[in-house]
Amino acid sequence: MRITDHIQCIDFPCVEARQESYLIPEVELDPTTVRLMLISETAPNDRKDYYYASCDALFARTTLQAFQEAGLKVTGSQDLLQKGIYLTTAVKCGKNDYAVATSTITHCSSLLEREITLFPNLKAILLMGDVAIKAVNTIARRLNEPRVIPAGSTYKIRGGIFTFQGKRAFPSYLQAGPSYGIEKSKQRMIAQDIRDALQIAGIY
């Protein structure tokens, strides 16, 4: 299955997003093998930085570092896929400013909702940063389901037990891009969140 055959933005209504950097994961995989999904913030402004662009891509490097610090032996995004770990973003376009508009998150959450349903054996979802958390909460609200992640700082709520449609949801910090590595304490917390998610997903 090719992800891009099943998820597409047609109308591009988000005027404040960088539509020229629109990206859906361009990978082919067996959806039944995916047990852990990592959702970060937005697509990079430069396609060369995306998860599946190359092993040297910025998103790939910082994310691989996070998984390695969690104890997983991987050297590339394909290694993660082979282990049943799928990487994506909550918002499929890049951003112009530091913040992401709520309207953009709401619109893109429809794409993310369809993306999540592609994986019947998904056990855990890593929500890396506030945008990913807000996107999944938006999906739950649209489905008339309880809020997945409660309001509050990530520092206070991470480590709690949260679920979304029978899957464990782990609120954490943004791991992809240049912001990663600024605070060593956040690196340690990200690694712990990934370890916990890997355990729930049965990936070692």
Polypeptide structure, described:
The protein has helices at residues 58-69, 77-82, 102-117, 130-142, 154-157, 184-201, and strands at 17-18, 36-42, 85-91, 94-95, 124-128, 162-164, 167-172. The protein is α/β, with parallel strands linked by helices and 204 residues long. The chain has a single domain, classed as Uracil-DNA glycosylase-like domain (Uracil-DNA Glycosylase, subunit E), CATH 3.40.470. The strands form two sheets. A five-stranded mixed sheet has the order 3-2-5-7-6, with helices on both faces. Strands 1-4 form a two-stranded antiparallel ribbon. Strand 6 and strand 7 (167-172) form a beta hairpin. Helix 1 (58-69) packs across helix 6 (184-201) and helix 3 (102-117) packs across helix 4. The longest helix is centred in the last third of the chain and has 18 residues, at 184-201. The protein is globular and about 40 Å long.
> What best-fitting shape do the alpha-carbon axes yield?
globular
Helix/strand-derived category reads alpha/beta
* Amino- and carboxy-terminal Cα gap: 25 Å
Tell me the CATH architecture. 3-Layer(aba) Sandwich
Describe the largest sheet: 5 strands, mixed
Q: What is the name of the CATH class?
A: Alpha Beta
Order of helices and strands: EEHHEEHEHHEEH
Radius of gyration: 15 Å
Briefly note the CATH topology name.
Uracil-DNA Glycosylase, subunit E
Number of helices: 6
Number of domains: 1
The CATH homologous superfamily is termed: Uracil-DNA glycosylase-like domain
For the largest sheet, list the strands in their spatial order: 3-2-5-7-6
Considering DSSP H and I runs of 4 or more, what fraction of the residues is helical?
A: 25-40%
Q: What percentage of amino acids are in beta strands? A: 15-25%
Which whole number gives the mean pLDDT? 92
